[in-house]
Amino acid sequence: MQPSVLLKTTVLRNIVKETCKSAVRNIGISNVRRSSFKVQDQKDFQERVKNSKVPVIVDFFATWCNPCKMLTPRLESVVAEKKGEVLLAKVDIDENTDLALDYEVSAVPVLIAFKNGKEQERLVGLQDVDKLRKFVNKVVDEK
User: Where is the signal peptide (predicted)?
Assistant: First the structure.
């Protein structure tokens, strides 16, 4: 191997090593409890939403829905603030048409709050963070 090629190879190898070391140093590990889940079917909905000991916000959404995509991070951050006092269930209306029909979801996004297995409150459409926070707080604080 020519000296210039050997030098370039060594330099590149050192750059890769240093990059990998710094990447490893910056990885954080945390024990975050998931406060959201995707509903798989009606049985899953019954077990995880209707039978839940804590209130559950059900987000009826569609993958093609732009307002749904905008709502998701807002809603997830508000639910995360409650640290397990409320859960977020995501229901894709295209995968779970029967659930959408059962709860008369005719437009998306729709948020339905469940407490003790019963529907408590409903929000339709894209919402700002303040309105979402009020919605979630009302569900959590009601006895």
Answer: none
Question: Tell me, what DSSP letter sits at residue 21?
Answer: H
Edge-to-edge strands, sheet with 118-124: 36-38, 87-92, 56-61, 110-115, 118-124
Instruction: Supply angle C-alpha 110, 93, 49, rounded to 5.
Output: 70
**pTM over 0.90, yes/no:** no
Read off the pLDDT band of 35 (50, 70, 90): confident
Residue that is written with structure tokens 């569609």 in the block: 62
Q: Using CB atoms within 10 A of its CB, is residue 122 exposed (0-12), middle (13-18) or buried (19+)? A: middle
Question: Tokens 């295209």 map to which residue?
Answer: 94
In order, the DSSP letters of 50-97 are IT-SS-EEEEEE-TT-HHHHHHHHHHHHHHHHTTTSSEEEEEETTT-H
Using the 8-state DSSP alphabet, how is residue 33 labeled?
P
- Which residues are catalytically annotated? 65, 68
